[in-house]
Amino acid sequence: MPRYAAIDIGSNSIRMEAAELAPGSEMRVLASERVVTRLGESVFRGGVIAPEAMELSCAVLERMAQQYQKLDVVGVRAVATSAVRDSRNQVEFVERASLAIGAPVEIISGREEARLIHLGVQARWQHPNRRLLIVDIGGGSAELISSENGRMRDSFSKPLGAVRLREIFLRNDPPLPSELHQMHEYIEEKLAGVGQRFGMAHWDRVVGTSATASALVCAVNRIPRTKREQADRMRASAHEVRRLYKKLCTLDLAERRRLTGIGPKRAEIIVPGIAVVLRVLEDLRLPCLYYSAAGVRDGIIADLHARGVGRELAQLSPDRRKEVEQTSRRYGVALPHARKVAGLAHVLFTDLQPLHQLPPHFGKLLEAAAYLHDTGHYVADANHHKHSYYLVSNSDMPGFTNRERELIANLCRYHRKSMPGPTHANWQSLSAEDKRVVLFLIPLLRLADNLDVSHEARIQSLSCRIRDGQVVLQVSSSADISLEQWAAERAGDVFRQVYNRAIATQKVQADDGRS
To answer: I need a labelling partner for 428 at 20 to 30 A (CA). Which of 109, 127, 194, 376 fits?
Structure first.
């Protein structure tokens, strides 16, 4: 399963998350950290990121990068949002932050921020058949996002972050009525177009993200901050939000900090944060707000996975692919079939990584074996798999180590007929670790080869899903693929033997291009 890392440099805090994600599986978080840096305080007060805030942020970023670098992530994306967007010294900050993590930091727009939030919510808590409104109150801005059937329809970004509003309006503690009145008027002005933008449509669910929503739901449901993960998917009614807000407005900082569910740092900015949430609920006449622990970082990871970032690590470089193709030609291999098998094998390797858990570079050896598995026909059709082993293991293949060439040759040897046995000298010569690698890759090569058993490339695309102890191969084709499905089921016996999982194929009708 590919691993990714995400960094969200917000106006109030910096969040890091490293996770792995596979088709049909939920995201598994490997590392996560959040540090309050208040990057936006000096920006919203004076227009620039203060030197001390920049120093703290870069130190935090460097430490976070050290965490995910130990996890062999294949893709990283770091983004900065409202405070950095608004700062006059953003160029200096981006340069220093990029140096701290050893990767580019990009300033994203409010619309891109909304897109990532939406992706994060859908990755953590899918709503495939519902109308969804997402409300995210950050430190510098607020995002409202409409979603229908799992797709983002519209987004609305306004400068209504909790840190920004506190810096502009709330000078006293507890805030004076006049300060609250000015803040309410400002919020109302900025949200004036919400009703027209989204209308008074029925929403199946309203989901709040970010720490403001977390603190709100924790406080209403009396969940201690130390157990705030329990608040995920819990709710607070509009009446409960209104009652909590009225109470918070009368308390000073020390009293707010003593409330269950509101942490010491969040207590400093909770009043303006909840003021925005309450205004949205009232303006759109929404009955309640659910909390989701998802955020920009989850959206980044889902986006990296959807774009296939890191998949190239499991594929041959152009030079190495050229070498195996030349070797294939030398022995009369039908290259269209070899290329098709290589493509199918790559999909199987990447989609089924949660099962075999092999590092990406072994996917390159599987691809090479897909090109070379039929070389044995050059000697004789009978027992050609054995001849393939001999030819590959004795071929000069620049770009491949001796160990890699031997692993490729063993995969060719076992792409059909019997599985490895104690009397096979080639098998016994492998180390225990190499035997494990070859054993996990054999079923994938057999499946890929059998899915093009006709040599006519009838399968146009392939995806894999792991469901209820079974692996489902979803194959797209506009042709009759009954032969390929039958052959895949035969290869499924070996797959079950190695992975202890059954194989099923599902055909999806592909566009034949005539419509």
So the answer is: 376
Which residue bears the tokens 């405070």? 83
Distances (CA, A) of 71 to 67, 303, 306, 315, 382: 7, 19, 20, 20, 46
Amino acid at 432: A
Distance of alpha carbon 436 from alpha carbon 112, whole angstroms = 43
Looking at residue 27, what DSSP letter applies?
-
For residue 240, count other CB atoms closer than 10 A to its CB.
Answer: 17
Contact call for residues 302 and 122 (beta carbons, < 8 A): yes
**What's the CA gap between 347 and 363, in Å, rounded?**
10
Separation CA 291–CA 389 (nearest Å): 57
In the chain, the N- to C-terminal Cα span, in Å, equals 37
One pLDDT digit (tens) per residue for the chain, 515 residues = 678 999 999 999 999 999 987 665 678 899 999 999 999 999 999 999 999 999 999 999 999 999 999 998 989 999 999 999 999 999 999 999 999 999 999 999 999 999 999 999 998 898 888 999 999 999 999 999 999 999 999 998 999 999 999 999 999 999 999 999 999 999 999 998 787 777 666 899 999 999 999 999 999 999 998 999 999 999 999 999 999 999 999 999 999 999 999 999 999 999 999 999 999 999 999 999 999 999 999 999 999 988 888 888 889 999 999 999 999 999 999 999 999 999 999 999 988 988 998 988 999 999 999 999 999 999 999 999 999 999 999 999 999 999 999 999 999 999 999 999 999 999 999 999 999 999 999 999 999 999 999 999 999 999 998 888 899 999 999 999 999 999 999 999 999 999 999 999 999 877 654 43
Residues 6+ apart with CB under 8 A from 189: none
Sign of CA dihedral 478, 483, 488, 489: positive
- Which segments within 159-306 are labelled E, that is strand? 205-209, 235-237, 288-291
The two tokens of residue 290 are: 């659910």
The predicted model scores a pTM of 0.77
Both tokens assigned to 156: 């609305």
**Buried b vs exposed e over 169-194: b needs ≥16 C-beta within 10 Å?**
bbeeebbeeebbeebeebbeebbeeb
The number of angstroms, rounded, from the C-alpha of 98 to the middle of its chain's C-alpha atoms is: 21
* Per-residue tokens: 367: 């691809």
What type of residue is 91?
Answer: V
Secondary structure string (H, E, C) spanning 285-353: CCCEEEECCCCHHHHHHHHHHHCCCCHHHHCCCHHHHHHHHHHHHHCCCCHHHHHHHHHHHHHHHHHCH
